[in-house]
């Protein structure tokens, strides 16, 4: 009897937690929608971009959006932070400074290379409304909201009957 079930996962691959895999698949979907190169979607499955993808925290206040990114090992000169319409773009590169002459590496976990994160803001900020700081591998970007965005939110009453 023939079945149309997908093949069972290989026992060699490590299982991924459900929500981590779901997040990666959603990010790949958005990347394809935004027109990113297709190779970027395949690399996280191979474990290549795990440590090159800066961890991001995004918080919102009444007046601003604050983005914090962990980029250990990078220098301020290696970062390019810009606004593309209503999208904050953080890109950069971590350089490999190892000297291979007299060493036989048994384990290499540190990653080097370029990275790029795009964060949709939902509004286009004014020219002078953005401030950024990079200290000890932590990038902090504060983006003031335009006046029309501050007043655009309104509470919707939900009836239970």
From TrEMBL:
InterPro entries: A-crystallin/Hsp20_dom, HSP20-like_chaperone, Small_HSP. This is Heat shock protein Hsp20. The keyword Transcription regulation does not apply. Gene3D superfamilies: 2.60.40.790. It comes from Yoonia maricola. The keyword Ligase does not apply. Residues 47-161 form the SHSP domain. Keywords: Stress response. Coiled coil: none annotated. Belongs to the small heat shock protein (HSP20) family. Pfam families: HSP20. It comes from the Bacteria. SUPFAM superfamilies: HSP20-like chaperones (SSF49764).
């Amino acid at each position: 009897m023939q079945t149309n079930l997908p093949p069972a996962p290989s026992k060699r691959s490590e299982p991924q937690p459900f929500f981590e895999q779901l997040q990666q698949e959603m990010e790949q979907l958005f990347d394809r929608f935004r027109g990113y190169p297709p190779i970027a979607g395949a690399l996280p499955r191979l474990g290549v971009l795990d440590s090159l993808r800066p961890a991001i925290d995004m918080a919102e206040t009444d007046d601003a959006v604050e983005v914090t990114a962990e980029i250990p090992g990078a220098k301020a000169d290696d970062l390019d932070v810009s606004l593309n319409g209503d999208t904050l773009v953080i890109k950069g590169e971590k350089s490999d400074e190892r000297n291979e002459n007299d060493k036989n590496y048994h384990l290499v976990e540190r990653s080097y290379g370029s990275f790029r994160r795009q964060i949709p803001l939902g509004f286009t900020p004014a020219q002078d409304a953005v401030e950024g700081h990079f200290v000890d591998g932590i990038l902090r970007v504060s983006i003031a909201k335009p006046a029309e965005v501050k007043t655009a939110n309104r509470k919707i009453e939900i009836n239970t009957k």
